[in-house]
Amino acid sequence: MQSGLHVTTARKRHPTNLRIAILSSPASRTSSVLIALRDGEGERVTLSEIVDALGPQAFALLFVVLGLPNCLPMPPPIPLICGFLLLGVTAQIVYGRKTPWIPRRLLDRSVARAEVARAVERALPYVRRLEQWSRPRLAFFDTPARMRLTGVALVLIAVSLLTAAPIIGQIPPGIAICLVGLGLVERDGLVVICGLAVGAVGVSLSASFVAAVVSGLTAVL
């Protein structure tokens, strides 16, 4: 089976089935979305199916879905593709959009469901534990202006994902994006703050990696 992302052929997709699976679950929470993605039909899942299924919480849940693959050591180009998508989505929050817009060409990209299932299985116990502990509090992102400020921080984290060291460097930004997404879904400002703190570590590590690469190239030249 071919792993990674690629452009799908013109086969019939069933985003409605995925949406039904999520809405019919006992509680429409992040864990419900992840389980629906894991157990959906077909060998591959497109970004279009994911976005169609997320509904009104599309921004927050996209952070979780796109950040999750980067919480594990992943070879290129998965971190790069997720990073570009996250950069586009977070920039739209800064711009003030209420729902995400993604170009059709990117919506047709797909990932092997086996890869999704592997990431979900690893993350699900932690997500459920966090959902049990989480509750609405410190909702500093309730106003458009504060949400845009959060978006600026997320843009920096997305950039750090693009410039991270290969294989494992994307893990801190990936965890940060997931925590922020979970915090937004649960309306838990404390989780969002924890995510931004982890993101600051990721930004610092990526900046150090870029500086080391530039320094090495300068020394050689």
TrEMBL record:
Keyword Methyltransferase: no
Keyword DNA damage part of the UniProt annotation: no
Keywords: Membrane, Transmembrane, Transmembrane helix
Transmembrane segments: 78-95, 149-169, 189-220
Alphabetized InterPro entries for the sequence: ExoD
Protein name: Exopolysaccharide biosynthesis protein exod
Organism: Pseudochelatococcus lubricantis
